[in-house]
Amino acid sequence: MTAKMMMGLFGLGAGAVTVGCGYLANKVRKLTKKVGMTMDAMTEADQKEIEKSMIERCVERAAKQEVKRYAQDAADNALQDVRSEVKSQVKKAVNDAFDDMKKSVEEEISKQVAAIDHKELQKDVREAAKQKILDKFDDNLDDILEDFNDNLSKVKKIYTGISDILQHSPDNGKEIHFKVG
């Protein structure tokens, strides 16, 4: 919010307070006249004498209370008006700034997207995907290779055992009998 706007709002508030004070002064004058007329009527109707200083104190006290009440109401109203105006102007300024920033961000994103080399991006994505797949299958292939080597070792032991039996047999392995079951 600019200083000019703040000064304008301050002037608006001061004007509202001034108008409120003028209004209160008018109300006080009317009230003083009414109290004066009532007192005059009481004096004429009642034969008792009322001290003038007592009447003046009552009038002053009533006038002060009335002025204070009207001044407080006027100040509260003026303050509320200023708050509402400030809130409205701040909201408008934020909305305007948001619209400007939104346009700027959209333009910058459009420029950045337009500058992307799509072929290079595709190449990078393919390479990254290929690497991920290779890493995954590499782990699986290691497990398969380990199982194959274990099985190959077992088959080698079987054939070595058969070979040893054939070499050490009395007929040099010419007769082989298999028994199932």
Give structural notes:
The protein is mainly alpha-helical. It is 86% helix and 0% strand. The longest helix has 63 residues. The mean pLDDT is 76.
Secondary-structure map with pairings?
Layout: H1 3-45, H2 52-114, H3 118-167
Short description:
This protein is mainly α and 181 residues long. It is 86% helix and 0% strand.
Question: What key phrases describe this protein's structure?
Answer:
0% strand, 2 domains, 3 helices, 181 residues, single chain, mainly alpha
Helix content: over 70%
SSE-based structural type: mainly alpha
Order of helices and strands: HHH
Ends: how far apart? 100 Å
User: Unreliable stretches, pLDDT < 50, 5 or more residues?
Assistant: none
Q: Provide the number of structural domains.
A: 2
Please, how many helices?
3
Average pLDDT confidence is 76
Question: What form results from the Cα inertia axes?
Answer: rod-shaped
Strand content: under 5%
Number of strands: 0
Largest sheet: none
Evaluate the radius of gyration. Answer: 52 Å
